[in-house]
């Protein structure tokens, strides 16, 4: 088992061992129970785990209460068993819907840590509360993707877990990465700097050990193996993840300069813009024959082009001139291709 995966397993055990107030458990008692479960670690390590876990869970300690020795840790008294607060029907419905979004986004191990909450949501939904039938609510609500849905690529779970752990703990990773078109993976040491969830593709932003000043982004599904080394990562001076995403065009940005867009829609095609504007400064004008003129300031992105192309002949680009010329050439290419 890698250092990273062992840390996650240990923290999951700690969460299961902590009782709800007024009961408590000391760090020394946690150490003994962890040892019995094959997790032999120092008290200092357990203390660091508890501090980190308290940031995301309702954990409290009584160190400030001098009369409560021996000191111990608990879930907050407002929590139920295993530290989970009561869930009302609306919360259950919300979690049930969120599950559909989170499953393809989160790495397997971290998603599984939320499954307890998802299971509780299902249980709440299955119960018929007074005056409410939550199960019927859920049966009548659906999440429909706005774009063409793609099947996520296959990801090595162990490698993915190690990548997230290295990023969390600020450690370098020893990886086996297979480049696009390569016959076999190469062994490299990388510095994990960030992760971008890009549709169904998850990308690791990182630098190579031999080139620590030049970040790159690599699809996580191409990592065949990954292991946390325990060696501190090296971060480029002044690294900014948002700036990197913009410069590398990960978000499909074509130009930093906004577009003053002016287009004419067939009335039906553009009707939705009355209810879901394209921008804050959007202006719509009714024209003859039911047509609709749109003026809006938008980002110059590939997504904008895909959106406009999706309307086919139901939209005409007026301005900017260079975008109109671009679509004119695209139309000619389509005509040639389908003639």
Give an account of the 3D structure.
There is one protein chain. This protein has about 350 residues and is α+β, with helices and mostly antiparallel strands. The chain has four domains: about 5-85, Orthogonal Bundle (Arc Repressor Mutant, subunit A); about 90-140, no CATH class; about 155-245; about 255-339, 2-Layer Sandwich (Alpha-Beta Plaits). The protein has twelve helices and eleven strands. Strands 6-5-4-3-7 form a five-stranded antiparallel β-sheet, covered by helices on one side. A four-stranded antiparallel β-sheet has the order 9-10-8-11. A hairpin with a 2-residue loop joins strand 5 (about 200-210) and strand 6. The chain is globular, with a radius of gyration of 26 Å. Residues about 80-85 have low confidence and may be disordered.
